[in-house]
Design a protein that fits this description.
It is built from 16 helices and 3 strands. It is mainly alpha-helical and about 375 residues long. The protein has 2 domains: about 120 residues, Tyrosine recombinase, N-terminal domain (DNA polymerase, domain 1, Orthogonal Bundle); about 160 residues, Intergrase catalytic core (hpI Integrase, Chain A, Orthogonal Bundle), CATH 1.10.443.10. It has a 3-stranded antiparallel sheet. Helix 3 runs antiparallel to helix 4, helix 4 crosses helix 6 and helix 8 packs antiparallel against helix 10.
C-alpha cells in the first residue's frame, strides 16, 4: 500500500502541478539568451546605474550574443544551453580581434555580472568564476611637462563666424580641464547653475554615480565668466557647440538647450589642436594625470588625491606615486654627486718607477 509520503509526492502531478525543479527546467528552456540579457539590463536601470554604464554593458553582451551565434547558439536559444565552452570561445574571440587587455576585461566583466545576476534569479548558467579576466598592467602616465603651455597659449579657433565666442569657450574649456582634473564626460555634463562662482567649486557626478567636489582656479572662473558674458543666453549647458551646423533650439521642445551641449569629440579635437600647436601630444585625460601627479609631488595626502579624482579605490590613485623615468633622470642629474663633473680631473697618475740605488747603478 502506498505510504502517505508517496501519495504526497505524487499529489502535484495528479493536480496538474509541476515540481519546483521541473518548473525551473521549463523556465530555462523557455527563456532565451536575448530575453535574459534584456532582463539584466533592466535590472541595471533599476539599480540607478548611469545610461552610459548600461550602454557599455549592452554593447558587451550583444557582442557575446554575436559570438555565440557564430558558434551555433543563436540569441533565441534557451538560456540553459550556455556552456563553459561558449564563455571560453568568447574570451578567445576578443583576443583574436586584437582588443587591448583593458577592453577585453571590461567586456568579460559585463558577462560575469550578467551570469551572477542570472544565478541569483535561479537560472542554471555557468559560474561567472569560470571567466578569467586578463591582467591589466598599471602603467605610469607619461606626462609632458610642457602641458601648461596649451592653456597659457591657446590656439586660435577655426575661421568662421562666431570666432570671438568660440575662442573664449576654448580657453574656458582648457582652463577648466587644467584646474579641475575632470573627466571629459564630466566636463561636457557641466551646467551653468552647477558652479559656485564665488567659492570656485562645483559638485559633479562621476563614474558609478559618485559625487565629489571639483575646484576651479581663479583663472578658470574668470575664463568661464567671460565666455558666458559674451554668449549672452540662459541655456543650461555650461559649454555649447558653436559651429556652422548650429541651430537655435526650439523653446517648446528644448527650452534648456540640451541639443547644443558640447560633445566629447569636440573637446578631444580642441585639446589635440592645442597640444599640436605646442609640439606635444595630449588628450583631455592628460590634464587629469598632470594635476594628480603635481598634487602628489607637492605632498598632498594620497586619500585626498583619491577624493579629488573620484577614484573608487586608492589603488588606482597609487600610480601617481611612481616617478616618471624622465623626471627621475632629471632629479638624478640635479641631486646625485656623480652627475656633476668633478672640479679636478680624475685621471689616474702614472706610477713612479723606483729609483735605483747608487750601489746598484755602479755595480
Amino acid at each position: 500500500m502506498p505510504t502517505f509520503l508517496q501519495h504526497s509526492k505524487a499529489w502535484p502531478a495528479r493536480c496538474g502541478l509541476e515540481s519546483p525543479a521541473k518548473a525551473v527546467d521549463e523556465d530555462q528552456r523557455m527563456t532565451s539568451l536575448r530575453e535574459a540579457v534584456e532582463d539584466f539590463l533592466i535590472h541595471l536601470g533599476e539599480l540607478d546605474r548611469s545610461p552610459r554604464t548600461v550602454e557599455t554593458y549592452r554593447r558587451a553582451l550583444e557582442r557575446f550574443l554575436e559570438e555565440t551565434a557564430a558558434g551555433g547558439l543563436g540569441p533565441e536559444s534557451g538560456l540553459g544551453q550556455i556552456e563553459r565552452r561558449h564563455l571560453r570561445a568568447f574570451s578567445r574571440a576578443l583576443y583574436r580581434a586584437g582588443l587591448s587587455a583593458k577592453s577585453r576585461a571590461a567586456m568579460l566583466s559585463a558577462l560575469r555580472s550578467c551570469l551572477r545576476y542570472l544565478l541569483r534569479e535561479g537560472h542554471d548558467v555557468p559560474s561567472p568564476d569560470l571567466i578569467e579576466l586578463p591582467k591589466i598592467p598599471r602603467t605610469v602616465p607619461d606626462l609632458d611637462e610642457r602641458l601648461p603651455e596649451t592653456v597659457e597659449h591657446a590656439p586660435p579657433p577655426r575661421a568662421y563666424e562666431g570666432d570671438d565666442v568660440l575662442a573664449l569657450r576654448d580657453a574656458a574649456i582648457l582652463q577648466t580641464l587644467y584646474s579641475t582634473q575632470l573627466r571629459v564626460s564630466e566636463l561636457c555634463a557641466l551646467n551653468t547653475d552647477q558652479i559656485d562662482y564665488e567659492r570656485g567649486l562645483a559638485v559633479v557626478v562621476g563614474k558609478g554615480r559618485k559625487t565629489r567636489t571639483a575646484f576651479f582656479g581663479p583663472d578658470a572662473i574668470s575664463a568661464i565668466r567671460r565666455y558666458l558674458e559674451v554668449r549672452g543666453d540662459r541655456l543650461r549647458p555650461l559649454f555649447l557647440r558653436h559651429d556652422r551646423a548650429r541651430h537655435d533650439p526650439d523653446p517648446a521642445k528644448d527650452p534648456r538647450g540640451e541639443s547644443l551641449r558640447i560633445t566629447q569629440g569636440s573637446v578631444q579635437r580642441l585639446v589635440h589642436r592645442a597640444a599640436a600647436a605646442r609640439g606635444i601630444a595630449a588628450t583631455p585625460h592628460s590634464y587629469r594625470h598632470y594635476g594628480a601627479t603635481a598634487m602628489v609631488r607637492a605632498g598632498m595626502d594620497l586619500r585626498a588625491v583619491q577624493e579629488s579624482l573620484g577614484h573608487s579605490s586608492v589603488a588606482t590613485t597609487q600610480i601617481y606615486t611612481h616617478v616618471n623615468p624622465k623626471r627621475l633622470q632629471q632629479d638624478w642629474r640635479q641631486y646625485h654627486p656623480a652627475a656633476k663633473p668633478s672640479p679636478v680631473p680624475l685621471v689616474p697618475s702614472k706610477p713612479r718607477r723606483a729609483e735605483s740605488s747608487e750601489g746598484e747603478a755602479s755595480g
